[in-house]
Specification:
The chain is of the alpha+beta class. The chain has four domains: 1-174, Orthogonal Bundle (Cyclin A, domain 1), CATH 1.10.472.10; 179-279, Cyclin A, domain 1 (Orthogonal Bundle), CATH 1.10.472.10; 314-496, no CATH class; 514-686, no CATH class. The strands form three sheets. A seven-stranded mixed β-sheet has the order 3-4-8-9-7-6-5. It has a six-stranded mixed β-sheet with strand order 13-12-14-11-10-15. A hairpin with a 6-residue loop joins strand 5 (323-325) and strand 6 (332-340).
Length: 688
């Protein structure tokens, strides 16, 4: 019997203390520390295991060990970035009093943003703050942008802009915040009774059932409900008291914004309580002052148009031949159909194309087109070589069609138009978004024969198919959609391509094809200087005799969208290639490089010439919202349509432009290898 007795250690435990004593594991890992808590920590107390003080020699040794331990914990810049950002998140979360779960979620979001390289060009504090705000929304913790900005070191506007960018790039699914979650905290700070709290919640629920909550700020809605409830329950609080707690400011007819037609625009509390006026009134007012009344007017009726077009959870409408494929979480991506609402007969006008340039679209016009599209999304695996049914199948059919296709969509809930972030960050305007439950075609799509040919050939590489469609008269905009839908390439390699990647891939592929056609062509005879200006951007294109060489230099003004610090200096970026072209993706100018290069190569191929080319782009402060690289492509294409200047030499052309450029000749020389190389050759010549 003794042979069956386990004489090993006793592992049973009957209370928490016994379980802790028998546990052999350390602290759980956490995302809130850059090393996830796995690195050994050396205690800062200079005492031994028995609590006795150690000798001075030992203290010196321990001090050195701690110093080296701190150094090796952050072995590179990425870890130092993460360490600083996570400490900022922890500091702000402590100030806001949010639970640890929110800090964990915020840390995960920031790690994803760092992995996706979304930090470049943005402040670490800004991305960390936006990650915390996103985590609060995901976890249902009521914290407004105003509250977040109070504990942050960055301004509210930058937080909103960065939050919108990060949430879009990472495809974060954000549920609308319930205003009733703000009520208990606001009432507690205002020292109101439970009766007022209950009445405020009833007001919110009653008005929400009537559809008045849609498109409203949760904090503003809760503040208005609490103020009304305090009046009804004879526990009156002033508007100022409620505003101080909620940080939502009630406006009487104190100051009107003058619309271009002379009509004063004002906001009154009575109007807010009776009709629950738009929550973004103050922000819209500021936007109208800074940007355009056209956007203000448009934002105010977007929600109405969508509500009128929706029937239950279904939406029937004509969609332009346009789709959207996200790049976050690749190879499982967010993919969507873009459908115009309330203007189905002009659905094709909502497709990005060169027609927008020819019609002189302003940033406002692009904003109206983009926000007028419903994005019905689903998550999907990119490997779709033989998938032609279900939501992805419908999406691919729409993408390869050459005209709008009727689609019936079944939505999982009402579309969410996040006006708060739209108003605060119009840098990346998008329309309402909803998860698509079903999608069905209501008519047969018309597919061009050239596209059918590329689809039917299972051995045709994507590069060859792209160039074939281009030679057959397809513009890059049409090819972008076909490639993005996974309809080009060898059968086993066909997959969904994120929209941003497909645009750059098509520009690069067609550009390389055109470069090949001019490799042995004669050079241009004279130095030409072409100029164009569009939506706050100026372009100068210098063509000089010589073998093919290309460089793009971008100068972005303080206060422009890619350099938002109005008090800072110009941001200058550059990329180039020689006669043999590039084999790696550019470092600093991203898709702008390939779009501008394509515009130049199309002109040279049409002439049957090659040249040494320098493109200078000045993005002024008037370029307050990015409309896409299409405007760069079309601006360069059309720069060759008007009369151009000539110069005796490349050096003279650059010198003539010095007075027009926003940066000094010295700074341009430091950034541009073509200009620097020219100066070096001149200096060498002068020294002979």
């Amino acid at each position: 019997e003794e042979e069956h007795i386990d004489r090993g250690p006793e592992w049973r435990a009957f209370n928490h203390s016994e379980r802790q004593n028998k546990s052999r594991v350390g602290a759980p890992t956490t995302q809130t520390m850059h090393d996830k808590g796995l690195t050994t920590q050396i205690d800062w107390k200079d005492k031994d295991a028995y609590g006795r003080s150690i000798s001075s020699e030992k203290r010196s040794q321990m001090h050195r060990l701690r110093k080296w331990q701190e150094r090796i914990r952050t072995k590179d810049a990425g870890e130092r970035n993460l360490q600083f950002a996570l400490s900022e998140i922890d500091r702000m979360a402590s100030a806001l009093g949010v639970p640890r779960s929110v800090r964990e979620v915020a840390s995960v979001i920031y790690r994803r943003a760092l992995k996706e390289d979304l930090i470049r060009g943005r402040s670490i504090e800004g991305v960390a703050t936006s990650a915390l705000y996103a985590a609060c929304r995901k976890e249902g913790i009521p914290r407004s942008l105003e509250e977040i900005s109070e504990v942050s070191r960055v301004e509210r506007k930058e937080i909103g802009r960065t939050y919108r960018y990060v949430s879009q790039e990472l495809s974060l699914e954000m549920e609308p915040v319930d205003p009733t979650k703000y009520v208990p905290r606001f009432c507690s700070e205002l020292e109101l009774s439970e009766e007022v709290q209950s009445k405020a919640s009833d007001i919110i629920e009653t008005t929400a059932d009537k559809g008045l909550l849609s498109g409203k700020s949760p904090t503003g809605y809760a503040a208005a409900a609490i103020y009304a409830a305090s009046l009804l329950c004879n526990e009156k609080k002033t508007q100022r008291e409620v505003a101080d707690v909620s940080q939502f400011h009630f406006h009487r007819a104190s100051e009107g914004l003058k619309h271009p037609d002379g009509v004063a625009r004002v906001m009154r509390l009575d109007d807010y309580l009776e009709g629950v006026e738009r929550d973004e009134a103050a922000d819209l007012r500021r936007l109208a002052e800074e940007k355009s009344y056209a956007i203000t007017d448009h934002l105010e009726d977007v929600k109405t148009r969508f509500d009128e077009r929706l029937s239950g959870n279904a939406f029937v409408g004509s969609t332009s031949p346009t789709i959207f494929v996200g790049r976050s979480n690749y190879p499982t991506v967010s993919t969507g159909l873009l459908s115009p609402v309330g203007d189905e007969e002009n659905a094709d006008d909502y497709t990005t194309s060169g027609q927008w340039y020819r019609e002189g679209f302003s940033i406002d016009d692009v904003f109206r087109r983009r926000t007028g599209l419903l994005n019905s999304t689903r998550s999907a695996d990119v490997n779709v070589n033989d998938v032609w049914d279900g939501f992805v199948g419908v999406q691919r059919e729409v993408a390869i069609a050459d005209r709008p296709v009727g689609v019936e969509l079944g939505l999982d809930g009402r579309p969410d138009l996040d006006l708060e972030s739209s108003v605060d960050d119009v840098g990346a305007p998008t329309g309402p978004r909803a998860r698509a439950r079903t999608a069905e075609l209501t008519e047969n799509p018309h597919v061009p024969r050239a596209v059918e040919k590329t689809l039917s050939d299972d051995d045709w590489r994507a590069e060859g198919a792209i160039n074939y469609l281009y030679r057959r008269g397809f513009d890059v905009y049409e090819i972008d959609d076909v490639l993005s839908a996974g309809a080009l390439g060898r059968a086993e390699e066909r997959r969904l391509v994120p929209t941003r990647w497909s645009i750059t891939a098509v520009d690069d592929t067609v550009g390389q094809f055109l470069r090949g056609t001019i490799r042995n062509a004669p050079s241009v005879d004279t130095v030409e200087v072409h100029h164009n200006e569009y939506v706050g951007n100026q372009y100068w294109v210098i063509l000089a005799p010589g073998d093919w060489e290309f460089e793009l230099v971008e100068m972005k003004a303080p206060g422009s969208i890619w350099n938002p610090d109005a008090e800072g200096s110009y941001y200058v970026a550059a990329d180039r290639e020689g006669y043999e072209g590039r084999t790696e993706y550019v470092d600093e100018t991203a898709g702008a490089y390939y779009a501008s290069r394509l515009g130049v190569l199309e002109e040279l191929a049409d002439r049957g010439r090659q040249a040494k080319v320098l493109v200078l782009r000045h993005a002024s402060e008037e370029y307050w919202a990015p409309v896409g690289v299409w405007q760069i492509r079309e601006s360069i294409r059309n720069a060759f349509e008007s009369e151009h200047g000539e110069a005796e030499t490349f050096h003279e052309a650059v010198r003539e432009l010095d007075e027009r450029l926003p940066v000094s000749a010295e700074r341009l020389r430091r950034k541009s290898r073509m200009v620097a190389g020219l100066q070096a050759r001149l200096a060498e010549f002068a020294g002979r």
